[in-house]
Design goal:
Blueprint (H helix, E strand, L loop, with lengths): L1 H5 L2 H11 L5 H35 L3 E6 L4 E4 L6 H6 L8 E3 L12 H6 L4 E9 L6 E12 L2 E11 L1 H23 L3 E5 L5 E4 L1 H7 L3 H4 L18 H8 L3 E7 L4 E11 L5 E10 L4 H18 L5 E5 L5 E4 L1 H7 L3 H4 L10 H17 L3 E7 L2 E11 L5 E10 L1 H36 L5 H11 L10 E7 L2 E4 L9 E8 L2 E10 L13 H40 L3 E6 L3 E5 L2 H6 L3 H4 L13 H12 L4 E9 L5 E13 L2 E11 L1 H42 L5 H37 L4
Antiparallel strand pairs: 1-2, 1-6, 3-4, 4-5, 5-6, 7-8, 7-11, 9-10, 10-11, 12-13, 12-16, 14-15, 15-16, 17-18, 17-20, 19-20, 21-22, 21-25, 23-24, 24-25
Helix pairs in contact: 14-15, 14-16, 20-21
């Protein structure tokens, strides 16, 4: 596409005409318009890609070059006129060249772009660019190959100007070398030691004086190195540890045969405690001048070194800025040159400036450091003022160190608030726990005792318990803390029992308190009060339920005890758990003799099949009604019981059965007698019918034979007796008919 963009329009048209048959004029015009549109779109896409690439590099603070697979630069973000771009492209002019940090020039074949196209990846490689005229430029270069379909199709090279960073690093290195060289080249003995006289290091002069190597000295006491077993009687280090300021002591050291002036300077940590002691030993006579020059430089260096590495400002006695660090220049939004020589107090409003003037004056007058917290432009600072004194003890410089503690301050405030909130929640939970304990402890006693103890502990759950009072009112009864008084700062919650308000729980402050979520009360306190009121309402309901339950149980127990029927409860695992006293009347057993035994133990074998069918229905959760089962009595006789059974269900499982057993032995016996009587009636009816037939036939014979007799009187007598017998038979027939009617009646009404 890039090659297409660079081709002239006539050349493209000629190439297409050579590849196609000879077109007519209309086709040529259409072909030309299409080529122009394609070229315009290609140029637009290329320009847009270059703009987006430049924007991406600008967003990450870098500039760059994009190469194609042939090593040709197709995008240069900063323009090919840029010195760095020309050097990276190998087009340096007028002596401009790219060098390695060691000073060797970079060969054309080793340019970052060439190395990336060759498959190498560079990450933040340092190079130096100079042309012999302008200052050297230090750049950090990264180069990455572009891989498409497994083949390198180009490369991207980006660079970042790190000249200032490199110069700063070199200045720091030079300063460190200067300080180390100064420390080692001092002709006086300089030692760094801990407050307990343990030596950390000497300078070269110190090691030469005592004739030891650093590894022989490190960790030993200073007085041990000269053959002593205890510190010197007059010791500058001991004084400096106590005073936390530089102490100067002159003394004769016999082991060296010299008069030495010992200067012990404490280095304080951020808490103002002595962390190290810098001790200097030098000959008073030979090095007086060098000592004077060194003392002033040490005072300045010490003020800066003792301060935290935040915003550091060195002031004179009047508050004029002598030196500032880079953090201070950024905070004041001014250059160092603009700040040096100006008064610190002109950067603050008059009232704040007056406070700083007073603090600076106090440090200068007392010679002691001062530490305080200050706020400036919405930020919080931990400020330390360190005095630096001259050889006469007069403060000539003050180092001000301001550490931004805004995050810490806000964190402390948030932690303080969370701690306060947590403490309030702990108090509320403690109240709820105590209320629960009170309710549990007095669950079997009285409500009044619960109310008296709850109202006593209730104020401890509020934010200001020393100023809180409480009262509980229930159905006209009042329970209140000492000195209770209803005030405008009142919080109340109703006690509701079964949907009806029966009382009130109240908490009042005796004096006005700061406004919170609900007057002077917190939202959590409202929730706590509602919970306590709800717990009290539930407790009242529970007590009422217990009273009702006790009455119901008493009534039920009385009914059970006096019931004519035998009532018992039997569980699958434990057997008979309860049985009413009627068992003694019905079966002859006492309740204690039956408890724990299985129901099956008392069933007559002939009734087991019917009883088992009832067990199957109970196992399905179905009730059983009118089940007639024969039970053994204690004396071995049999009793008929009619059972009505209900399953006991827990967690959807049948675990037992409630049974009401009615003694129907007498009824069963009456039914048997009635059955026998009916059967006897049936037999009598049949006998009556047979008897009538058997009598009538002989009578007819007798009557016929009497007709053959000649004696009228005998014949009349026989006829008379036959008539009497027929009358008896007629009465038997009428009895037989009545017996049949009785039988039909019994059958009709299911009495047979």
């Amino acid at each position: 596409m890039d090659n297409l963009r660079n081709e002239p329009l006539d050349r493209l048209q000629q190439l297409i005409q050579d590849a196609l048959p000879t077109p007519n004029s209309q086709l040529q015009e259409r072909l030309k318009a299409g080529i122009e549109a394609l070229l315009a779109e290609n140029r637009d896409l290329a320009a847009r890609a270059e703009r987006e690439h430049n924007a991406l590099l600008a967003a990450i603070g870098r500039r760059g070059i994009v190469y194609d697979a042939a090593g040709k630069a197709i995008v240069v973000s900063s323009g090919e006129g840029d010195r760095v771009a020309r050097a990276l492209l190998g087009r340096g002019e007028g002596g401009t060249a790219l060098y390695y940090p060691d000073g060797n020039p970079v060969r054309p074949e080793d340019l970052p772009g060439r190395r990336a196209i060759g498959g190498e990846q560079l990450i933040d490689v340092r190079f130096i660019l100079h042309d012999g005229q302008a200052e050297e430029i230090y750049i950090s270069v990264s180069a990455t190959p572009i891989v498409t379909g497994g083949t390198i199709s180009g490369a991207v090279v980006t660079w970042l100007d790190v000249t200032e960073e490199e110069r700063t690093r070199r200045r720091v290195e030079e300063m460190n070398r200067l300080l180390e060289g100064l420390f080692e080249s001092l002709g006086d003995i300089v030692a760094v030691q801990l407050p307990d006289h343990t030596i950390l290091r000497y300078n070269r002069t110190g090691y030469e004086l005592i004739g030891m190597r650093p590894e022989e000295v490190r960790g030993r006491k200073c007085y041990e190195l000269i053959g002593r077993t205890a510190p010197c009687t007059v010791c500058a280090t001991a004084h400096a540890v106590v005073s936390r300021k530089r102490e100067v002591v002159e003394k004769f050291v016999p082991e060296f045969g010299r008069y030495l002036e010992c200067r012990s300077s404490p280095i304080l940590d951020e808490n103002g405690e002595v962390a190290f002691i810098v001790e200097q030993l030098y000959d008073v006579t030979d090095r007086k001048r060098a000592e004077d020059e060194l003392r002033e430089s040490e005072a300045t260096a010490r003020a800066l070194l003792n301060a935290p590495s935040e915003m550091i400002i060195l002031l004179d006695r009047t508050g004029r800025l002598i030196e500032v660090n880079e953090t201070a220049t950024r905070r004041f939004a001014r250059s160092r040159e603009d700040l040096i020589g100006r008064s610190l107090f002109e950067f603050f409003p008059p009232d704040e400036a007056a406070v700083y003037v007073a603090r600076l004056g106090e440090v200068v007058a007392s010679g002691r450091p001062a530490r305080f917290e200050d706020a400036w432009e919405g930020r919080f600072y931990d400020v330390i003022l360190y005095p630096a004194a001259d050889e006469r003890g007069n403060v000539v410089r003050v180092a001000a160190v301001a550490r931004d503690v805004t995050g810490k301050k806000r964190g402390e405030d948030a932690l303080r608030k969370r701690t306060h909130d947590l403490n309030e929640r702990v108090k509320e939970l403690s109240v709820l726990y105590e209320v629960s304990r009170i309710i549990e402890r007095h669950s079997k006693s009285s409500l009044d005792e619960i109310f008296r103890e709850v109202v006593r502990v209730l104020p401890s759950g509020w934010e200001f318990p020393e100023n809180a009072v409480a009262r509980i009112t229930v159905q006209g009864r009042r329970f209140a803390t000492e000195h209770f008084e209803e005030t405008p700062w009142r919080q109340a919650s109703p006690i509701v029992v079964l949907g009806e308000t029966v009382g009130m729980v109240e908490v009042c402050y005796l004096h006005e308190r700061p406004e919170r979520d609900e007057g002077p009360f917190l939202a959590e306190e409202r929730a706590l009060l509602d919970i306590v009121a709800g717990r009290l309402g539930g407790t009242i309901e529970r007590f009422q339920a217990w009273d009702s339950l006790e009455k119901s149980e008493s009534q039920f127990r009385e009914i059970m005890q006096q019931s004519f029927d035998m009532i018992y409860t039997c569980y699958k695992e434990g057997g008979i758990a309860y049985i009413s006293p009627a068992v003694t009347r019905i079966l002859g057993y006492t309740p204690d003799e039956v408890l724990g035994r299985k129901c099956r133990d008392f069933i007559v074998p002939a009734s087991l099949s019917a009883w088992e069918e009832g067990r199957k229905k109970i196992a399905r959760g179905e009730p059983v009604e009118g089940l007639e089962v024969e039970f053994y009595r204690k004396d071995g006789s049999v009793a008929f019981l009619e059972l009505n059974e209900s399953p006991i269900v827990r967690d959807r499982s049948v675990i037992g059965v409630h049974v009401v057993g009615r003694d129907v032995t007498e009824r069963k016996q009456n039914e048997q007698l009635r059955q026998h009587a009916f059967e006897q009636i049936e037999r009598n009816i049949e006998q009556f019918a047979i008897l009538g037939d058997h009598i009538r036939q002989p009578l007819q014979v007798i009557l016929g034979m009497s007709e053959l007799l000649d004696e009228e009187m005998a014949t009349g007598k026989i006829r008379e007796q036959v008539a009497r017998i027929n009358g008896y038979i007629a009465e038997l027939d009428r009895g037989w008919i009545e017996s049949r009617q009785v039988r039909e009646f019994l059958r009709r009404y299911d009495l047979a």
